[in-house]
Amino acid sequence: MVTGAKVGLVAAALMIVYVVWGSTYLAIRVVVEEMPPLTGMGSRFLLAGLLLGGLLALRGVDVRVSRAELLGAALLGLMLPLLGNGFVAIGESIGTPSGVAALLVAAVPLFVVAYRFLGGDRPRMWSVLGVLLGFVGLAWLVLGGRDEGHGTLTGAAFVLAASAFWAFGSWVQPRLTLPENAFVLTVHEMWTGGVMMIAVGLARGEDPAPLEYGAQTWLAWSYLVIFGSMLAFSAYVWLLSNAPIGLVATYAYINPVVAVFLGWLILAEPITSSVVVGGLIIVVAVAIVISVERLPKRAEEPALEPV
């Protein structure tokens, strides 16, 4: 229940999650213009994990975990930072506009419901209808945007795969042995995911050249480390304990709107008919699913977006 002085804090935390997470798609698009996608994003998560771990240690939080907890966190590092955020970065690096990427990533709650169904659960009828409607919107956005400058189908496929992997990580999370403290979990998820991303990036032939990157690239990268990975996540975790879950979950359909607007405003990405129609269908579908499900906080609530 949100009462009294907490109302202002909740509003501020929501604005951080809405705006900062919505803006990360733009920042990723700027970074991958010069940085290789996996090593660039991997170094972001590695540094963010180390910085957050250091801050927690200074505050007296024990960041040590058991071997089983570390393995669980590493599995999430594989599914979320590497296959989630990493695939978004690859998709944007080969031409997918940041706003389109955000709309495709908005499908995470739809994939979560699909995994629940495959796992033997029977979602509510309105949830199923929301999922079907959402995939219609995704098809409209991807197929209708081929002739409207939305990048290649390959780029869109990478971002859709990122949504599917991120949703699977969200779905499997409560089934893993993990640290109880969500911030400690995030530390180990980020640094393990970052190490894996760097290793895979180097294995696929990425050749980082830090001295050749411009100030704009480093500014966007630093924004992702400090604001995207540390500030916004802290606000999100705080909200989960201090605000109704239905209110917190609204980030899933606010973020893409913010991302589309910023992509248009700063990078002159076109807002085409397929973006408007497909995006509206996706956002409505996600709103239906979130409104109907009202999932428990640590059960099958979609985890952070892969940004």
Question: Would you kindly provide a written description of the structure presented here, covering whatever features stand out?
Answer:
This protein has helices at about 5-30, 35-60, 65-95, 100-105, 110-120, 125-145, 155-170, 180-205, 215-240, 245-250, 250-265, 275-295. Helix content is about 75%, strand content about 0%. The chain is mostly helical. Helix 1 packs across helix 11 (about 250-265) and helix 3 packs antiparallel against helix 7 (about 155-170).
Q: What is the compact description of this entry?
A:
By secondary structure, this protein is mainly alpha-helical. 74% of the residues lie in helices and 0% in strands.
List the helices and strands and how they pair.
Blueprint (H helix, E strand, L loop, with lengths): L5 H26 L5 H22 L8 H27 L4 H8 L2 H11 L6 H20 L8 H20 L9 H22 L11 H28 L2 H4 L2 H17 L5 H21 L14
Helix pairs in contact: 1-4, 1-9, 1-11, 2-3, 2-8, 2-9, 3-7, 3-8, 4-7, 4-11, 4-12, 5-6, 5-7, 6-12, 11-12
